[in-house]
Design brief:
alpha+beta, 5-stranded antiparallel beta sheet, elongated
């Protein structure tokens, strides 16, 4: 008799807990689908690439002193995409607000590095806020950086030497 009463009590407790368990599971699953409103997206575009060969590599930086970065080791995030119509675009998703800079490589031979001839890159490179690169205008994070607090779209000029 005591065993039967004990079993009835457990079934009643389970019936009481069932809505709570289902609610907890639903909240847990929804937490993966609801976008964090504290994060934003950055879309980076490049146009006027000299050909459709290879890939375009998009490197995102968020620290002073991280540019120049010839070996792409100091980046915050990095992505690659194909080229269509001498243009490419990449979206950095779910970024926190902050200060960022972008470095572009038109990686024509898809080796993931900047190929150089005599000191100068043989492939196209570009940086946010730069339209020219030279001895008196070397890339650095301070000049390439921009504040980012809402979804944004930027275009970066790719420079060939």
């Amino acid at each position: 008799m005591a065993l039967k009463q004990n079993l009835i009590l457990k079934i009643k407790k389970l019936k009481i807990m069932k809505p709570f368990i289902f609610s907890a599971i639903a909240i847990f699953l929804l937490s993966f689908t609801i976008r964090n409103t504290n994060t934003i997206n950055l879309t980076v575009e490049v146009h006027e690439l000299r050909n459709n060969k290879g890939l375009v590599q998009f490197a995102l930086y968020n620290k002073n002193g991280s540019i120049p970065d010839e070996n792409f080791e100091k980046n915050y995030q990095i992505g690659k995409t194909t080229i269509k119509g001498n243009a490419a675009q990449f979206v950095f998703k779910n970024l926190p607000k902050g200060t960022y800079a972008v470095n572009i490589l038109h990686d024509e031979n898809e080796n993931g590095k900047i190929d150089k001839g005599f000191m100068l890159p043989e492939e196209g490179i570009g940086f946010s806020n730069y339209t020219k690169i030279g001895l008196g205008n070397k890339p650095n994070f301070s000049k390439a950086s921009f504040e980012f607090s809402a979804d944004k779209r930027i275009a970066v000029k790719v420079i060939y030497f």
